[in-house]
């Protein structure tokens, strides 16, 4: 498809303790891949994002993929109506979009996992060998959510206090952040939407453009990003560009 990564110059500011935690995570994950190289194809990388009616590229995302550099500028916008969307990406496709009705809480998040995600995920071949990844957002850290993950992904989930502890402020290490949302918003925000229903349809349409070849390419880039993070002592990999 000729897609290349282009990087708006904005990254998360890391705290003093973040560097060591990022290195530890990267080293642990790479060690798992040494023993099981195909593991990279059995991780569901998940996240939520907000799509606004007057939206621009999310200033918390750091890379978008396109055929040419569109000189993306990152701007602050006034608060306006929008949609909260969840999705997961793995090397053969995407699961989603799922639209939350309101702010994501532990209760609404686990309802999504039970009613939407798990029935779709369970149909994947060898689903019992998959890892599930999400970041340390408050809803993700709710005790009932962690209990659910321990039951359904025993020893196989990545997140805050997970089997593999996710390092805070690390959007550069998950395809859900460094690819998925920025790619989708680059499509959705090409045309302004006046209603939430038209915005929703635009998001659904944008998801349909993501094929398995692209997902594989994006997920295959994870080990390189992990190694880059180690090489630069835990700094974000965007600094290398």
Describe the structure in brief:
Helices cover 37% and strands 17% of the residues. With 241 residues, the protein is of the alpha/beta class.
Written description of the protein model:
The protein is an alpha/beta fold. The chain has one domain (4-240): Ribonuclease H-like superfamily/Ribonuclease H (Nucleotidyltransferase, domain 5, 2-Layer Sandwich), CATH 3.30.420.10. Helix content is 37%, strand content 17%. It has seven helices and eight strands. The protein has a six-stranded mixed sheet with strand order 5-4-2-6-7-8, with helices on both faces. It has a two-stranded antiparallel sheet with strand order 1-3. β6, α3 (143-152) and β7 form a beta-alpha-beta unit. α2 packs parallel to α3 and α4 (175-188) packs across α5. It starts with a strand and ends in a 10-residue tail after the last helix. The relative contact order is 0.22. The model is unreliable at 6-10 and 58-78 (pLDDT under 50).
Layout of strands and helices, then pairs:
Elements lengths: L3 E3 L11 H18 L7 E10 L11 E3 L15 E9 L2 E8 L5 H16 L9 E3 L9 H10 L4 E3 L4 E2 L9 H14 L7 H12 L4 H9 L1 H10 L10
Parallel strand pairs: 2-6, 6-7, 7-8
Antiparallel strand pairs: 1-3, 2-4, 4-5
């Amino acid at each position: 498809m000729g897609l290349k990564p282009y990087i708006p110059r904005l990254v998360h500011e890391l705290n003093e303790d973040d560097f060591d935690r990022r290195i530890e995570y990267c080293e642990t994950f790479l060690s798992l891949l040494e023993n099981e190289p195909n593991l990279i194809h059995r991780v569901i990388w998940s996240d939520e994002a907000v799509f606004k009616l007057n939206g621009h590229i999310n200033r918390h995302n750091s890379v978008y993929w396109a055929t040419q550099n569109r000189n993306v500028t990152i701007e602050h916008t006034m608060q306006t109506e929008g949609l909260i969307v969840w999705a997961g990406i793995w090397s053969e496709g995407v699961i989603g979009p799922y639209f939350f009705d309101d702010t994501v809480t532990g209760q609404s998040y686990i309802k999504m996992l039970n009613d939407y995600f798990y029935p779709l995920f369970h149909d994947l071949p060898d689903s019992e060998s998959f890892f599930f990844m999400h970041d340390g957002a408050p809803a993700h850290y709710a005790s009932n959510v962690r209990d659910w993950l321990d039951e359904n992904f025993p020893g196989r989930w990545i997140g805050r206090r997970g089997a593999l502890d996710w390092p805070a402020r690390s959007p550069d290490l998950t395809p859900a952040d460094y690819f998925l949302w920025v790619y989708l918003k680059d499509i959705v925000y090409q045309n302004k939407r006046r209603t939430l229903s038209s915005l929703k349809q635009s998001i659904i349409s944008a998801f349909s453009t993501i094929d398995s070849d692209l997902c594989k390419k994006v997920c295959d880039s994870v080990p390189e990003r992990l190694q880059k993070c180690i090489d630069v002592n835990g700094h974000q990999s965007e600094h290398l560009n």
